[in-house]
Amino acid sequence: MKQAVEARSGASAQGAVDGARSTSPAPPYYLPCADEVQLFEQCHANQLAVMLKGPTGCGKTRFVEHMAWRLQRPLITISCHDDLSASDLIGRFLIQHDRTQWNDGPLTTALRSGAICYLDEVVEARQDTIVVLHSLTDHRRSLAIEKTGELIHAAPGFQLVVSYNPGYQRMLKDLKPSTRQRFVALDFNFPPAQQEIEIVMQESQLDRPTCAALVGLAEKLRSFADRGLAEVPSTRLLVATAMLIARGIPVKRACQVALVAPLSDDATLVGAMHDLVDLSF
Ligand code: ADP
């Protein structure tokens, strides 16, 4: 059993899931790109589950962290993978001191504590795991735990949020229509250039002209999707590149290791991307 679960209280990385109030003085930095903040607030107020759709590294997780802080809810994050079972989400009996004891899984903990439960890359999970979520996304807002006979009703404030990258392995993996229709879907993409420059500056503390040049380069590199590049450079990669530059790594070297090399092993594509780096700096 692999499990990747992170629990945070709002913005604070306390690991606590029982405190609804965030103790963090500052919100996780998030620059809105459209009306996503208002839409999410309304979904939360109306107990609607939300699906964040968009490429990797475009700000979905940061957005949820920011919204949890804004709404003053604990945040429990679950990174989905193809081994994730329903028990990993709900809980299981474990042997402790010669007797078995029930241990809540992260989904159950979120239900009881009124947390925002964020399932990152939900499409990676098996269908029989995803089906567990259905009763939580309609009027029932409840979860029946067969093994204990308990029916748990979601505490006020509980909200289910999933993320999903529609471009990735689209032919192999997709969500069933019966699952998709249970969510309000917010489309995410890489931020518009001016916003992306602000984000990269804020996150790396690098100067504006270099950040602007990096964003310009990323826009050109993103057109390589037409030439067979499976994943284009994300805002996350830009931030990492800018951080290296801000800490003294030469610009072209930082672009090589943080912007180009993570994207492809194809020598022709990598060579063409390096040429663009040389033209940009
Ligand atoms: P995703 O969950 O979509 O894979 P993340 O939320 O982890 O991506 O975003 C990657 C990084 O990009 C963040 O850590 C943050 O530095 C930056 N980022 C992207 N979009 C924004 C935004 N709108 N506001 C602030 N930071 C952003």
What's this, in brief?
The chain is built from eleven helices and ten strands. By secondary structure, the protein is of the alpha/beta class. The protein folds into two domains: 35-187, Rossmann fold, CATH 3.40.50; 193-280.
Explain how this protein is built.
- It is a single chain.
- Strand 7 and strand 8 form a beta hairpin.
- The protein is α/β, with parallel strands linked by helices and 281 residues long.
- Bound molecules: adenosine-5'-diphosphate.
- Adenosine-5'-diphosphate binds next to helix 2, helix 7 and helix 9.
User: What string, H for helix and E for strand, traces the elements in order?
Assistant: EHEHEHEEHEHEEEHEHHHHH
Q: What integer value in Å does the Rg equal?
A: 21 Å
The helix content, as a percent range, equals 25-40%
Q: Which CATH class of the largest domain applies here?
A: Alpha Beta
Major sheet characteristics: 6 strands, mixed
Query: How many angstroms does the end-to-end distance come to?
Result: 47 Å
The structural class is: alpha/beta
The number of helical segments is 11
What proportion of the residues form beta strands (DSSP E)?
A: 15-25%
- CA-based shape: elongated
Count of spatially separate domains:
2
Question: What ligands can be seen in this structure?
Answer: adenosine-5'-diphosphate
Report low-confidence residues grouped into runs of 5 or more: 9-23
Give the full name of the CATH homologous superfamily of the largest domain. Answer: P-loop containing nucleotide triphosphate hydrolases
- The count of strands amounts to 10
